């Protein structure tokens, strides 16, 4: 029973997350040779003010709307 935890910044739409879990579930089941219903995906979402890389908070580094639908 694979449990896949995805850590990411908040801001994705329900549609984006649904498409992601469909794709990751299919690929995990295929690769690990298990039934799709055995695959669990958990999202750990973080505010950008609580995530940093290279010494800079993501809120400051990328801006408020980064990662949302239509943002690049």
From TrEMBL:
<dbReference type="GO" id="GO:0016853">
    <property type="term" value="F:isomerase activity"/>
</dbReference>
<dbReference type="InterPro" id="IPR004370">
    <property type="entry name" value="4-OT-like_dom"/>
</dbReference>
<keyword id="KW-0413">Isomerase</keyword>
<comment type="similarity">
    <text>Belongs to the 4-oxalocrotonate tautomerase family.</text>
</comment>
<dbReference type="Pfam" id="PF01361">
    <property type="entry name" value="Tautomerase"/>
</dbReference>
<dbReference type="InterPro" id="IPR014347">
    <property type="entry name" value="Tautomerase/MIF_sf"/>
</dbReference>
<feature type="domain" description="4-oxalocrotonate tautomerase-like">
    <location>
        <begin position="2"/>
        <end position="55"/>
    </location>
</feature>
<protein>
    <submittedName>
        <fullName>4-oxalocrotonate tautomerase</fullName>
        <ecNumber>5.3.2.6</ecNumber>
    </submittedName>
</protein>
């Amino acid at each position: 029973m694979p449990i896949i935890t995805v850590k990411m910044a908040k801001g994705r739409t329900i549609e984006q997350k649904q498409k992601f879990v469909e794709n990751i579930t299919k690929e995990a089941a295929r690769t690990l040779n298990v039934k799709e219903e055995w695959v669990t995906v958990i999202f750990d979402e973080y505010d950008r003010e609580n995530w940093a890389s290279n010494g800079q908070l993501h809120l400051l580094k990328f801006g408020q709307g980064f990662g949302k639908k239509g943002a690049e």
